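If you are new to this repository, start here. Below is one unmodified record pulled from the training split, so you can see the exact layout before writing a loader.
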Amino acid sequence: MIKTVRDLSYLPAGWINVAEDVTSDTLLKAFRYVEIMEPVDLEKYCIRAIAGKATHAKPIHPSSVVTAPWVRLKCQFGCAAYDKGYCCPPDTPTPEQTRAILDRYHRAILFHIEAPKISDQSRIELLKEFFDMLIDLEGEIFKDGYYKAFVLLAGPCMLCKECTKLKGDPCNFGNRARPSMEACGIDVYQTARNSGLFIKPLREKTETQNMYCLMLVD
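And here is the target side for that same chain:
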């Protein structure tokens, strides 16, 4: 009988939270399952993201992602996009629902992109290109066998100039529209800092934005 987490140190990341009392037979079956599901290193996806203009791409455990009720409050009171798009609250998961979703994953990748303001349009185009790359990457990860892959982006959806929600019509890009981390109640500041990455509030719109996206893998 295995009694401590230390005895599980040889297991891949994500299995360290296994309950303390585990029979050797159960653990052997679990380990065999991991060997089947664990052959692909997340590093190749990180390399792909860096090539796609990410400043950093870091594998993380979803337990380091912080959710908080105040995040949704900041959307509701302070953001002009609130209730004006399918990828914004109140159409997105609540912080509590997001926490429940995160707790069903063992691995994720946190992406960081620095978006300097050369002009308003140049920053928008940079982010559009970056988000498109991440959505394509989600599809690639899915096809590699990680069927739970799902990406959370940053900021309001950029796929349409005006969301079809305002006219009561279905989304034009339901296959590619993704909510942001903050729209789902994630404290992006603390989540980034938990992974040793830089972020701070901006004083001026002309400052470089440090934006974050999250890929839930498996």
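Two things worth knowing about this chain: DSSP finds six helices and four strands in the chain. Strands lie at 56-60, 108-115, 150-152, 209-216.
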